[in-house]
Amino acid sequence: MTDTTRPRLRFAPSPTGYLHVGGARTALFNWLYARKYGGDFLLRIEDTDKARSTDESTRAIFEGMLWLGLDWDEEVVYQGANLPRHQADAERLLESGAAYRCFCTPAELEERRREAEARREAFKYDRRCDRLPRAEVDRRVAAGEPYVVRFRVPEGTTEWDDLVHERIAFPNKDIEDFVILRSDHTPIYNLAVVSDDIAMRITVVMRGDDHISNTPKQILLYRALGAPLPTFAHLPMIHGLDGKKLSKRHGATAVGDYQHYGLLPSAMLNFLALLGWSPGGDREVMTLNEMIELFSPEGLQKKAAIFDPKKLEWMNGQHLSMISLEELEPRVTPAIITARLATEEELVERREWYLRLLDLLRVRSRTIDDIVRQAAPYFLEDIEYDPAAVAKNWKDPAESADLLRETRDALARTEVWDAPALEASLRGLAERKGITAGKVFQPLRVALTGLTVSPGIFEMLVQMGRDLSLKRIDKALAVLER
Fold first, then answer.
1. How far apart are CA 139 and CA 170, in angstroms?
2. Element (H, E) at 301
3. Which residue of the set 173, 217, 244, 248 is catalytic?
4. Which of 407, 442, 438, 399 is nearest to 425 (CA)?
5. How far is CA 36 from CA 29, 44, 299, 449, 480, in A?
6. How far apart are alpha carbons 482 and 478 in whole angstroms?
7. pLDDT in tens, 136-193
8. Is-catalytic flag, 124?
């Protein structure tokens, strides 16, 4: 693949807030396209809005991208540093006649807008400054009168073949002569974007379909600047379960929030990939390498995607089970330490036991927080009993105490503390008492963990060990016999 055909894509967020899941999805699709087709993925920070852009937001973007593993191939481009080129491109458009200076003041434009509304007409700039004689324009510029630079929209139709929406066409008569340079000589969004994309040699512009209305203006700018057009792909919006555009009212929308909720980046990427793209068939759970292999523009969808937090949790559970223990351990350990269940030194000292515990707990977990919650009984000296678990499985305290006492005796008599021997002891007890094994297991589960949900009872007993298991039953008996 030559440099002229090598795909170059970019993600261009504005540092005016956190990294939104919609932005992360856009970044992912650009990244997947670049990785699938041997191209380059670039990052541009569009920081021209100095009043709203912050270093904190820029850091949040970097942190979110790095957490997701969406690495970029060249140095980060900061749009604000490109002001001289933006201004030079505006000057080129003036010199070629593709743009003109407009001296109309905001007050004058507002008055004309009100007049158009009174006539029940849509306001559109009437090009009056484009009709000024050259000498008059030069005189006003020399006098220091403020002006904006407007692009002169030609007649005809502007159309393109979109990778998602196929052929899209806009009649140029519906596009007014839009401003490309403000009166303070800073660029409007459309000029800055086109100027930067040309300089960065971007070949594919993939972004949300809320940008479709900007695209005809940008195509006109590309042509006026004599630059080749990139391929455009406009991705569907992301909606909440209520069908409305995803926003804070739907819950967390920042990538950083999900990182702190105990989600895996691989699960987040997998979930985001399915918001507006299908790999074909019923395939849902994928590793990042599998997503790269399966990705193609043909799988991009037109209809709005639905963000379902429950589906994300389910997806995270799938990835918790898929990844290696070596990858899972460093993600869980900080949460274990933060919860004060153990110190790093203690976990290192009992590493083999700790890895077995993680393998045991992840099967019934959907988040890292779930693992930590289930891990507590294996570390703590004392546990608390979930009221719902007590109400369900220790309904009659005296009866539950009698059964737990017999259970303790059966376990204490078990010579080999392994799953087969423990299972034989507990099932033998149930058979002697003429009850189902579950009648023995559930009260014991509450005694050991304080919870109704845990790994299999025999695996749990082995992991806890004889001493802690019997100690937990003694504590439960003391509680029941009070």
1. 37
2. none
3. 248
4. 407
5. 10, 21, 13, 47, 62
6. 6
7. 999 999 999 999 999 999 999 999 999 999 999 999 999 999 999 999 999 999 999 9
8. no
5: buried, middle or exposed (CB in 10 Å: 19+, 13-18, 0-12)? exposed
pTM: 0.89
Residue spans per domain, the chain: 82-189, 255-379, 387-480
- List pLDDT tens digits, range 83-108: 999 999 999 999 999 999 999 999 99
On whether the CB atoms of residues 387 and 451 are closer than 8 A, the answer is: no
Q: What is the CATH number of domain 82-189?
A: 3.90.800.10
Provide the pairing of β-strand 305-306 with 238-239.
parallel
**What token pair was written down for 20?**
């939104």
- Read off the DSSP letter of residue 130: G
In angstroms, what CA-CA distances link 442 with 145, 433, 450?
A: 84, 15, 11
Q: Which CATH class is domain 387-480?
A: mainly alpha
Fold of 255-379: Glutamyl-tRNA Synthetase; domain 2 (1.10.1160)
